[in-house]
Structures are given as C-alpha cells and as structure tokens.
Task: inverse folding
C-alpha cells in the first residue's frame, strides 16, 4: 500500500508516452488510463507533465502536453516539478506542483500557489530534517518529497549529490 494520500503522482509515464506517440496521442492514452483507474476504484492519478522544464528547455513542450491532456482528459490531474521562477508559466495548466527553494518555497510562495488553485508540495529541499519538520509546517505546503535520499547510488544526506538520473 502507498504511504501517500491520493492523488498519486505518475512521474514519468505521460512524458514517455508523449515521446513515443506525441502529446495528443499520449493524452488519449492517459485519458483512457485515468478513466479505467477511476472505474476500478483506484486512487486518482496526477500525471506529471514536466520535470524542471526551464532548465531543460522543455517548457513549450510541457505546455503543449498539458493542453493536450486538458482537451483529452477532462478532469485529469496535472502536475509538474518546478525549480526555476521561469517555470511559473506552466502554473495555469496545473493542479499540483512540487517546488523547491530555487523556484520559491517560502510561506508566501506556497500561499500564492494555493491562491492560484494549485496544490503545493516541497521537494528536494536543502537541510532535510529542518525541511521535513519545522519548515514544512511553517510553509504550509502539503508535503515533502525527498527522492534523492531513496536512490541506492545517492548520498542519503545530500539531496544535491547529482548521482541519480531523475
């Protein structure tokens, strides 16, 4: 059983489908999967349309994918990992985001995200223990994802070690 409350993030499938079938084809496949999951009584899926898009030069592609999802999968939840202020251009198309200190993750940033109708989580924050306790509470974010610490090749105490392929 998952330790996360729904919706559950689908980190890579939609973007991989888009590489294989184009944004519109991927959106149709994800719409079908969303409907089948709902019919089976499974938790809601949050389809991740982007991972740090400005840094990778993929912002325009992420916007196209998100728009294709909105057209094909009405009601589907869309998510992204944002770590640059330029990534904010994607916010109007999203339902939930993970943000880090580089994007802006203080209490005012979290409040602005909520006011825009986006469900915010923190991710890969420096000083993990502080972030997971006091800072998570103080920021008002919904949760904290710190996936680097779970990688078998990563230094569990350094989320910026750069030795993982996310």
Result:
């Amino acid at each position: 059983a998952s330790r996360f409350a729904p919706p559950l993030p689908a980190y890579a499938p939609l973007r991989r489908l888009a590489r294989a079938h184009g944004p519109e084809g991927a959106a149709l496949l994800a719409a079908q999967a969303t409907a089948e999951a709902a019919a089976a009584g499974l938790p809601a899926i949050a389809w991740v349309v982007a991972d740090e898009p400005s840094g990778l030069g993929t912002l325009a592609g992420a916007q196209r994918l998100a728009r294709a999802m909105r057209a094909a999968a009405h009601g589907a939840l869309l998510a992204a990992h944002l770590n640059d202020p330029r990534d904010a251009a994607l916010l109007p198309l999203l339902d939930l985001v993970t943000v880090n200190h580089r994007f802006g993750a203080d209490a005012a940033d979290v409040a602005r995200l909520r006011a825009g109708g986006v469900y915010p989580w923190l991710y890969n924050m420096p000083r993990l223990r502080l972030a997971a306790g006091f800072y998570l509470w103080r920021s008002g974010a919904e949760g904290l994802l710190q996936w680097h610490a779970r990688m078998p090749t990563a230094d569990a105490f350094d989320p910026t070690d750069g030795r993982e392929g996310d």
About this structure: The two ends are 23 Å apart (CA to CA).
